[in-house]
Amino acid sequence: MTSTAIIVILEKITSKDKDFRYMATSDLLHELQKDSFKVDMEQERKLCNVILTQLEDPSGDISNLAVSCLGHLARKVAEPRAEDLVRQLCDKVAGGAAGGAGAGGGGSSSAAASKARDAQREIAAIGLKALLKELAAAASASLAANATAIIAGRMLEGLAAHKDDADVTGHVLDILAELIGRFGGLLPADTQGRVRDALLAALMGEGRLLLRKKALQGLAALSVYLSDDALGGVVGPLLAALQQPGVKPDFARTYVQAVGQVSRAVGYRFGRYLAVAVPLAVSHCDKAAEGDDELREHCLQALEGFVLRCPHDTRPLLEAVLAAALRYLRYDPNFAADDDDEDGGGGSGGDDDMSGGEDDEDADGDDGDEYSDDEDMSWKVRRAATRILMALVSRYPDALPALYKAALGELVGRFEREREEGVKGDVFAAVGELLGQVGATAGRYTAAAGDAASPVALLAADTALIVKAAAKQLKDKSAKTRVGALGVLRQLVAVQAAVAADAEAGADGGGAAAAVPGSVVDVLVPGLLAALNDKSGNTGLKIEALSFLRQLLAAAPPALFQPHTKTLGGGVFACVGERYYKVAAEALRCCEALVGVLRPEAAAPVPPSQQPQVAPLYKAVMARLSATDQDQEVKECAISAMAAAAARLGDSLAPELPGVLRVLLERLRNETTRLTAVKAITTLASSPLVPGELLATGGGGGGSADGGVAGELTSFLRKANRLLRQASLVALEALASRYPPAFDGAVLPAAVEAAAALVGDGDVALAALALRFLVGLMAMPGPAGAAAAAAGGGQGARAGAGAGAQGGALEVLEAFFAALAAASGQSSDALLALLLEAGRAEAAAAATGAAAAAGSSSKQAQHSVARCVAALATSPAAAAAGAAAGAAGANNKVAATVDMLLSTVNSAKDPGSQRLALLCLGEIGGRADLAALPAVAAAASAALAAPGSPEEVRAAASHALGGVTRGNLRHFMPGLLAQIGGAAAAPKQQYLLLQALNDVITTLAAPSGAAKAADLGPETADQVLALLLGAAEAEEECRAVVAECCGRLALLHPGKVLPALLERTRAPSANMRAMVVSAVKAAVVDRPHDVDAALQGGGVLLDFLRLMGDEDRHVRRAAVVALSGCAHAKPGLVAAGLPGLLPLLYGQTAVREDLIRVVDLGPFKHRIDDGLELRKAAFECLDILHDCGPLRDRLEPAAFLGALESGLGDHADVKAPCHTLLTKLAATDPGAVLTAAERLVVPLEKTLTTRLKSDAVKQEIDRHEDMLRSCLRCVDSLAHVPGADSNAAFQGFLRKVVLATPALKDKYALVQRERLEAEAGAAGGDAMDTA
């Protein structure tokens, strides 16, 4: 910007023409907003003066532009000039004579002058606030600090000088509140004290109410930055004033409001005053004069703030707060009928009151609607009381049974008696919160499912009461009330359905109770029908009603709805034709759910009473399905609804099916609807009511020339859309099973080729689906199956050698090879050779380094090949081939395969081939009895004992020996036990033999091995246990396997094993004690098992876990790891004893000097911390306990945070998991984290300010950077805790450590961006799943 341009602007800005002045001021604002703006000192002075002059311009537009210029100008001029600008503004606001009027002059001139000064002061105050806003956004630290000091000092002076001038005092208090809100942390302690005293004096003085409220706002904002002692100087006088017996009501209102706002501002720091504040708030609420509802509201709002911001300190006063909330929930002095009906709100006693005739209900509702009193503010009291109940429920889920009993009946009773619509909405929200907590905490009461006092049992008893009360609200004239009632009902059904699903899952098929009682449906239908037929045009009400109806249809038995399908169907079908797409889409989803009501059992015919509703449903859905000019969501919902209708009601819609399938084929060919159409084809192909030929040809819309539906689906396998390919494979498999002729002609080779191309190690899920489809093709009769086998064999073998073939994909691959042997004309020998060659190639690649990057993936590939070889060798097709060749049976084919593999083991030179052959022998041995082939066990034992064998070959030999033993336990187990006993002097060999034994026991203890578990009888179990206990003093790796074997053996014989293990918890050997507690961890599995009762009975498990107090650190670590495993797999086993175990666990988190050794290495000394691994295990255990919902409530926050504080300052290996744990705790218990923030930021600051040595190597630098990122992620999570912005300790740490260091600031910004991207990605993933 040139000097000439400035001169031009300055000339115009002083013009008498206001248009010139306006344009010049606008140009100046535009220039000030440029980064390149720069002027000399003289021009700075002139600009500051002219802007101050423009503030007083008679034109309001110009003065407003001048206000906008102020902030930009203060940041662009030199700091001394900006400070001078601040002083002049302060003088305009708080300067001038105290009296306000001059001594001379007439009255009119004096009044005019006073009015002008007031206008100047007001615009100057606005300008000063705007300047503060700009300084907070982008000012330098020094300018912000200096400006803060200037404004605070001048405002305090003005407050003292103009204490009798209400206008000046009001502006000063406004600016102080603005200053504190933006720069309160920059005020020195002495200035904070002066500001506090001035605001407190203004608050407690005799000034106007408006001034007291402004002082209240400033005081609440200042409280955040005050020290604890200084905060006491605010809270103490307020509480003392409230304790005075003669306090005036208007002052009492102000003081209570101040206490409430201060408590919300400072959060947990207010906890020390609650013992006085809570009784005072309740007392003033009770003693408030008649009609003083404002005081009652302020008292209840203060109580709500105490619960929300200081939940831990409010807990001892919970009963008093709850009683006050319930008392004032019923507060309605202007409605006498409330007293008469009060019995109706307290639980089931209200049935008589609610069972009155509909005419009376409508009359009562009309009276409530007609009641009007503008002076009645009692609704604010009831609203505040309702919000207290919501806060109590959200903050104290552990006290839910008591809260439920006390509050639910009262809240439900307010459904009918509440006259104010806004309060009724809060009541609905409170009931929804209560129901949500019942659902969220249902798992905590699983052990006491039969306890009538559990929230789940209480809710089951109250369901009818809630439904009846909500059903009455569905007849209300207010759409908002009806939507709120539907929201409560949705929450109720969702909770009941979730509880019923959990009960059914835990009942082992015993039949759980229905999610929704039968009486509920009859009560709700009239209200639902009224909402569906609503003529007011309120689409939100219809959407809510349809959504609830769909949820109810899914949760209630179909028989309950069958009497109402005609009435409900009419409403739903009418909504299908609505113009608003969201209503139509939700109605179509309801139609899809109604299909199951019309025909509950697919095998049974449509009930005669439901047959008349089939045609209307079809017409409504078909009208939407055939239309093209509609929203995408409606199209997809119409496709899904029609597919469900055709699949379940196909025989009733036989004449219409061709037209339906033609439209679906069109949607299949449309890019925007093809994914939903593919899923619809899958649904139709799975139904016996849809003719296969009709389906394959798309109702005649796709002939054999283009392949019909199968051809379209095959073409989708080459698309880039992964979801489309997955859905197409599922649909093709269903179509191949339903109607094999659909793949006649050129479709079959094209489908096989496309599916075989997807079989690989790139995408495991796609590979599994493609293999399943190929298996389905090969199962088709006639030449089609052989053609599919011929085309798919090569790709299947390649997948068997791929590392991606594992888990579910590997099981499908085994089935694929069995089907391939049955369908193809080639012998199983050729397929075996193909598989073995693929496995050897993978091993050779690994040996030469070609697959070095894959590491263990090549080993996994060989395991995959071995399982496929075993499946092929033991398949029925192989047995049939052996019989056809004149063999004695299936065993001859197995024997031939075993002989071929044995020759490889004995003659192969490369370890890879030997390993593959041994793995194959082990898998075959596990599936077939090889007792007639003793050479297998001998070869495996020899390879295992050979001193020169590579490690991977010996491990494969262990696997082979275990597999052979599994095949015939009684024949091979004695030999295996003898080898283990004889290998005591060879630890490595003993370890491998124990691995083989572990393989046997683990397989028998698994559900799949239950058929053979009886072969390991009591006598054999005694031998095995004695052998294992004898090996407990072996090398560490052997002890780990021994512990796992003992644990798995306990699953088979708990009565023998557990007492023996428990007896050895007192053994003198630390190795023995560590082994037995590790064994218990292996005995706790994540499925119901008989061993659970043995562990829980008599506190057996707790006796093991109490070894956390053992004198040996290895035993303590084993016990901590065992607690982690038990809490993860079966939290119910440790829940009752956790309070006694936690002190022992917390003891393992502290650094112990007696476990630190100093090794003298000559030039320097090295510290070795033997307790590090124990502390890492302890914090990992705490992490697991915190993640487990039923156990989290049993963690006392104070002790938990004390341990966490210690870990945050520990070794780097301990800090990282502690950062993660603190992040989780900030999300689940933010109040406790804020309470300890002052202590927690100390180790965090130490971590962030740690500096590396100048000679640090790259590994140390990388570890340091990882630690900084971990710590900053933790800091970012703390910054998002509600109330963190008002936590002085955390904000000081954030400002002085994180944001003040450029390097840390940049890393912190990167961490924030990563979090935002992750949240956006998660939201996108949820949206995709929903779609």
UniProtKB/TrEMBL annotation:
SUPFAM superfamilies: ARM repeat. The keyword Cytoplasm does not apply. Residues 1134-1297 form the TATA-binding protein interacting (TIP20) domain. Residues 337-376 are annotated as: Disordered. Keywords: Repeat, Ubl conjugation pathway. The keyword Repeat applies. One of its GO terms (biological process) is SCF complex assembly. It holds the Pfam family TIP120. Belongs to the CAND family. This is TATA-binding protein interacting (TIP20) domain-containing protein.
